[in-house]
Design goal:
There is one protein chain. The chain has 290 residues and is of the alpha/beta class. The protein folds into 2 domains: 249 residues, 3-Layer(aba) Sandwich (Rossmann fold), CATH 3.40.50; 32 residues. Helices cover 47% and strands 18% of the residues. Strand 6 and strand 7 form a beta hairpin. Helix 2 packs antiparallel against helix 3 and helix 6 crosses helix 7. The longest helix has 20 residues. The protein is globular and about 70 Å long. The relative contact order is 0.11.
Length: 290
């Protein structure tokens, strides 16, 4: 592709960004895709992509453990012209899904990609256990990675291995997004993450914590990312804290809407509890009569 063609393609990508495709996907589009992505985490990831775009920091984007593509689609929307997306998933090889964390469906994944990104977009798919791949398998296919989500196997060994794989295939300005570190359902992620962050080989430093994500990067970029994220996502800041020897900003959902506050007060009221009790009696009486 010539330089002129690349510039024209880049303008098309930026025009698409301005047209609101990403914001539309964050607000409503992603609801059509089965999976898990907190709205605040989605906005933080989109903001990190915008920071990289403003700094003209390029690279691939992708994810380990795409399920049906809920987050992967957002990562691919953040690509610029000439950049590539990738995914790693066991898909139909569910015998490799040793802890039952999600169930990838390649047919549904590809269908969702076509719906949101068009028929021409094709990420590089590495099918199999993520621990069987080397950094060269990723960088040889798509180059170094600037946004790398980890949501694959949730055992300690797989989590630590995935973090090392991400670090070794990541661009110097890249960001790793670790899912479920604080999810009590999968304590192996916290153990594996702690094991990696405490090891001598750890090349990543945490700089932010979302609702269900921990964001990491090279130590020399941590301050920049944290400051920019705070500046652009101030409404979601909860507090500043220390995490594995690094300063991190903790983000949450922000102030509840008037409707959410009203519903919250209503559910705590005596009238609400009385109504629930009456409804329970009604249901049990109806069941006895049938």
């Amino acid at each position: 592709m010539t330089n002129m063609a690349l510039k024209m393609a880049d303008r098309a990508f930026k025009a698409r960004f301005r047209s609101g495709d990403i914001q539309h996907y964050l607000r409503t589009g992603n609801r059509a895709v089965k999976g898990w992505l907190d709205p605040v985490d989605g906005r933080l990831i989109a903001t990190l992509g915008a920071i990289q775009a403003d700094l003209e920091w390029g690279g691939a984007t992708g994810e380990i453990g795409v399920h049906h593509g809920k987050l992967a689609i957002l990562l691919y929307m953040l690509l610029n012209a000439g950049e590539s997306g990738f995914c790693i998933d066991v898909f139909d090889q569910q015998n490799l899904n040793v802890d039952g964390s999600g169930r990838g469906d390649e047919a549904r994944f590809q269908s969702n990609l076509k719906y949101f990104l068009g028929k021409r977009f094709e990420p590089v798919c590495l099918r199999g256990d993520s621990t069987s791949f080397a950094p060269e398998d990723i960088t040889g296919a798509v180059g170094s990675v600037r946004l790398f989500s980890i949501d694959g196997g949730h055992t300690p060994d797989i989590t630590a291995s995935d973090l090392q794989l991400a670090s070794d295939s990541m661009a110097e300005h890249g960001v790793v997004i670790l899912d479920d570190f604080f999810n009590a359902t999968f304590p192996g992620v916290a153990e594996g993450g702690a094991r990696y962050l405490s090891s001598a080989r750890a090349g990543l430093t945490p700089f932010a914590i979302g609702l269900n994500k921990v964001f990491l990067c090279r130590g020399e970029q941590a301050g920049l990312y944290r400051n920019e994220l705070c500046s652009r996502s101030a409404r979601y800041i909860y507090k500043e804290s220390e995490f594995f020897g690094a300063t991190v900003t903790v983000f949450h959902a922000g102030r509840a809407s008037a409707r959410q506050r009203f519903v919250g007060r209503l559910r705590k009221s005596a009238r609400w509890r009385a109504a629930k009790a009456s409804y329970a009696i009604f249901k049990s009486t109806k069941a006895l009569r049938s």
